[in-house]
């Protein structure tokens, strides 16, 4: 009778270990996804700190290095996005033209909950702001004027602040855009750290253009012209293959 090769034995043991490890990772991932309460057919994307898509195994390895993660989801659409964060370090903004905007569900100042799907079907201009941001305050008249002239678009402003702070900002500044508040998780997932940041989404919910810390000229007419040119530039640009 021939003896089994020791090498073959090690190979079989390694295969069994890999199978066991994969099964454990699958159970862990299923448990994580279940905690997100996304329904029967969930779609979850994992991003590293730079915003690059990674698999669950790589995601858990990074968590094992002492990192945390931000998460944002749309339970109605059954979708979520999780991004690695390093405590004490702001995430770098990494969403570019053609990227899918993260799923979200946020409370609206006007009442109810808004989701990414609420803004599909039209181009959508998003302004990220906070109440004491001087450039954010300065751009309010321009954003308001642009919205009045473009009834064919969606407009929404998002802040990490609470409803009372957002309401005071809207009232004192005459800002009539729909406002979503409590958006810190979405802001962390995107990596927004400079204000104001403007993002233009195409009708399918993908990023069409981004202006981080957009500089608008002092003259009101020129400010509006600058914003119009920026929007038109990305609306007419060659579509990005997906």
Overall description:
The protein is α/β, with parallel strands linked by helices. The termini are far apart. Helix 3 (134-149) crosses helix 6. The protein folds into two domains: 38-88, no CATH class; 95-237, 3-Layer(aba) Sandwich (Glutaredoxin). 37% of the residues lie in helices and 21% in strands. The longest helix has 31 residues, at 6-36. Strands 9-8-7-10-11 form a five-stranded mixed beta sheet. 27% of the residues are buried. The protein has six helices and eleven strands. Residues 1-23 form the signal peptide.
Q: Which CATH C-level class of the largest domain is it?
A: Alpha Beta
Q: Which structural class matches the secondary elements? A: alpha/beta
| Spans where pLDDT lies below 50 across 5 or more residues | 13-18
Task: Compute the number of helices.
Answer: 6
Structurally, the number of domains stands at 2
Task: Give the number of DSSP strands.
Answer: 11
Overall geometry: globular
End-to-end Cα distance, whole Å, is 59 Å
- Mean pLDDT, to the nearest integer, reads 88
- Proportion in helices: 25-40%
Succession of helices and strands: HEEHEEEEEHEHEHEEH
Organism: Dyella halodurans
Pfam family, one: AhpC-TSA
Domain Thioredoxin: 95-236
Protein name: TlpA family protein disulfide reductase
Summary?
Helix content is 37%, strand content 21%.
